[in-house]
Amino acid sequence: RVKERGRGHYSFYQPQMNSGLLSRMKLEHAMRQALEHGRMAVYFQPQVHIGSNKIMGAEALLRWTDPEFGVVSPAVFIPMAEESGYIVTLGAWVLEESIREAVHWSTQGLPLQVSVNVSALEFRQTDFVERLKSLLVKHGLPAHLLELELTESILLQDAQEMAARVRAIADLGVGLVIDDFGTGYSSLGYLKKLPIAKIKIDQSFVRGLPHDAGDRAIVTAIISLGQALGMEVVAEGVETCAQRDCLRDMHCHFFQGFLCAPGLPAEAFSERMRSQGVAHDDDWGAGPDAT
Ligand code: C2E
Ligand code: MG
Ligand code: MG
Ligand code: MG
């Protein structure tokens, strides 16, 4: 309801909204502080080759633990950072941390790929490709060890310019990945025109496997589309052996999910990789129904 506040000042009296706005501003401020004070960390979630059960790379996932707000989910702070533009600063930091870590793996004899999420606003920066190139040079990372995850919507606006950018990145040797495939406003047309290396099946389609007929149909279709176009297919959010086995039967190439591991701190991920060398394929994730 409208409440009078002194002479000629009217405002909607909505305490929830005000406190919502206030806590949002506090959260936004805390987010900037968090990066400056080292409270942000990049975690790494293994990407597993389904055929061999071997970890081939990792997706970089940003984590924030705040003294006041506790663990803040990326689902909360990434959209907030996208709205305020702070994602450009945040994303640049994640990219450099990820490149640094991939170099670290390489020097340990682990040539793993690192896959970094890139938001629309970051990708739209006119100097994005230049900065990417200089980071690779600065840290000496072979371009093929880096992948960038984009969502379909990034490619739709200013399609010509974005397509040119995608090609420039592919020319560097960096892999391009379509994230959350099938959940956006896809036109599919871009798939045949652009040098896309991988598509990631969104976890909303993986969840119902192996029983849900609709999910099975969609996942089968995405995998054959990817294969026909010469792209590799990654399934996200794999939590059970039954889901993994189903995906293996469908000839999906890679999976990510809690079945193998959640995002891990860099040190824990490296530790896991060092032990993979001597581990048997069935040391993890192999339940009674695994073959
Ligand atoms: P995404 O890129 O699609 O990442 C996958 C999300 O699924 C991650 O959530 C991951 O922790 C979660 N996940 C992985 N395996 C499983 C599983 O088996 N079961 C379930 N239920 N979930 C699983 P997270 O880390 O909370 O990130 C959410 C989203 O935030 C990401 O979705 C991505 O869009 C965004 N994000 C995270 N880090 C960054 C970043 O550094 N930059 C940008 N631009 N976005 C990021
Ligand atoms: Mg992703
Ligand atoms: Mg995804
Ligand atoms: Mg997602």
From TrEMBL:
Top-level taxon in the UniProt lineage = Bacteria
EAL domain mapped to chain residues: 24-277
What range does the record give for the signal peptide? none
| Record's protein name | EAL domain-containing protein
Species for this entry: Acidovorax bellezanensis
Instruction: List the range of the whole protein covered here.
Output: 526 to 816 of 830
